[in-house]
Design a protein that fits this description.
Two copies of one chain form a homodimer. The first copy, chain A, is mainly α. Chain A has one domain: Farnesyl Diphosphate Synthase, CATH 1.10.600. Chain A contains 17 helices and two strands. In chain A, strands 1-2 form a two-stranded antiparallel ribbon.
């Protein structure tokens, strides 16, 4: 695997995600009905703003995990659909708040809700979607699933605060970075996959396997995202490039490049990250240093290891189209950069 | 009851709230232990910021409702304490987000968290406390209590968005205003009181009575708050005065004054609220118009009616110190302005 600046976009029409979407078409249609129904409110600003985000597409990767895991454990029923919708609502609430915190301007190829409506509506509609997620979970009558997802929700918030506290910390360690992405991203992937065997009352080994699959897939996904922030094309990704750099968010490529930097490069990173003193040529310079240090390549290799772990976690399940689909997704996530 | 600008502060040492706090001392100590324990995190910014708000005091009125309702229904056990802590966490999360939305500077006599740490930590720590509230609820193993509180959480968010959408709307009706305060304030009071009879498996009539008590108390509380915003003293209240006016938030005093205003006063309200064009003498002028129109007085009378409704809802319970305490609180809430 070599790193180039031409990503295979996640939106690729023949991607394994699209194949899984096709396999799950009936389930995803049922989940869409729940999502649309539960984001309604007589307060018009709520469905308007929620629909701007939810209706913009996105691959519904997390609810797909819940659905595929459900089929891997027997079948997907209405209760799985409700949990899948709850997972998507938690994710949507997080995105709305993240975009306020990060002052993001672009999401899924659209202007962010904070840019269109302002910060306050984004905060409050995020709270609404988060609460509606819990309404849905309560309806499933599964205290165990509620426990898994409410625990994931507090871990996500913890990871977001930790990331914020570590902003511009050029001395951030790899261990802290892995903690942050494990919490802010992988925890929800893990929970989305784990709730299905719980609902289906499957053996604990299957719970652990799917939790592990989700966790490792989430790590792989975020590692790739963090590499793409220094290499993708804005139009293909539907999000801005260089956001992390401009915010002074320290990610694995920067940690690794800084660790092996000569004194001139160390001074560069200290200026642009720690002192947060950047001009418009600095992103290009950063990318050039990252490439020279092999930091994007090594980040992608770390992602590949996580992806392999995710696929290995599935070995306890008998072969099926669902197992193949989940395995292919793990492989695909790290090949967005080919 | 006549309206004057000298409030009896909620912090009054001999208030019924203090008497209920004394009566509930053992319960409130147990709840404090849970609150302190559950706002901990290895991410230091979380307990720091949470403690700034939670440790600043406040009367813990909502958890007190849960405790007193529990005793009214027999006894308060650990499960009630956990729900009371969850209620306080939901309230705290709402305060953190509200202060960001309202750009507030003062809360409980302290600088707000958004002023000290910034908006982003306030948003994310609010999310954390909200998630921790659900962790606690899951531990109680009561799906019914979870349903009540998660439903309240989505109604609160809905009310907050509705309030935001109605900002500067000088044509806001009383019905919309009552919807907003019913959602943003009274829903949590109602849920805090209702969860105790649910946990204690009491007859549905007691659930309805305590829900009604909480709802009407919450309305009374918010009506008084909205009157005090045009009449209290900053030092006594521990919050800013004139905040609603400066934000262009339309509350019952303004709705009533506008309804009976002559053309000169209508032009004033249109300028300061709808066009949001204010100078530093306008708050004083607003107060003078509100007094002349009897709008503060009539708002307090509406609060008194709600308080009476709350007390009447308790009649189905046999006499006890807890019933007296809850009744006295309803009376006290509307006599903060004596």
């Amino acid at each position: 695997m070599t790193y180039s600046s031409t990503p295979t976009p996640l939106q690729n029409a023949k991607s394994p995600i699209d194949r899984l979407l096709a396999l799950s078409a009936a389930d995803m249609a049922a989940i869409d009905v729940i999502i649309i129904e539960r984001m309604q409110s007589p307060v018009g600003m709520i469905p308007d703003l929620a629909n701007h985000l939810v209706g913009a597409g996105g691959k519904r990767l997390r609810p797909l995990l819940t659905v595929a895991s459900a089929h891997l454990c027997g079948a997907a029923h209405e209760v799985h659909h409700k949990l899948a919708a709850a997972v998507e609502f938690i994710h949507s609430a997080t995105l709305l708040h993240d975009d306020v915190v990060d002052e993001s301007a672009l999401r899924r190829g659209r202007k962010t809700a904070n840019l269109v409506w302002g910060n306050s509506p984004s905060i409050l509609v995020g709270d609404f979607l988060f609460a509606r997620a819990f309404n849905l979970m309560v309806e499933t009558q599964s205290l165990e699933a509620l426990g898994i997802l409410s625990n994931a929700a507090s871990i996500i918030a913890e990871g977001e605060v930790q990331q914020l506290a570590a902003l511009r910390d050029i001395d951030m360690t790899e261990a802290v970075y892995m903690d942050v992405i494990g919490a802010k991203t992988a925890a929800l992937f893990a929970a989305a996959a784990e709730v299905s065997p719980i609902i289906s009352e499957r053996p604990v080994a299957e719970r652990h396997a799917l939790r592990k699959y989700g966790q490792e897939l989430g790590l792989a996904f975020q590692l790739v995202d963090d590499a793409l922030d220094y290499g993708g094309f804005e139009s293909a990704l539907g999000k801005s490039v260089g956001d992390d750099f401009r915010e002074g968010k320290v990610t694995l490529p920067v940690i690794r490049a800084f660790a092996s930097a000569n004194s001139e490069d160390k001074a560069f990173w200290t200026r642009v990250i720690k002192e947060h003193n950047q001009d418009e040529t600095d992103l290009e310079k950063a990318v050039s240093i990252l490439r020279r240090a092999g930091a994007l390549q090594s980040t992608m290799e770390e992602a590949k290891r996580r992806s392999d772990n995710a696929r290995k976690a599935l070995t306890i399940f008998p072969d099926s189209p669902w197992k193949t689909a989940l395995s292919d997704i793990a492989e695909f996530v790290v090949e967005r950069i080919s």
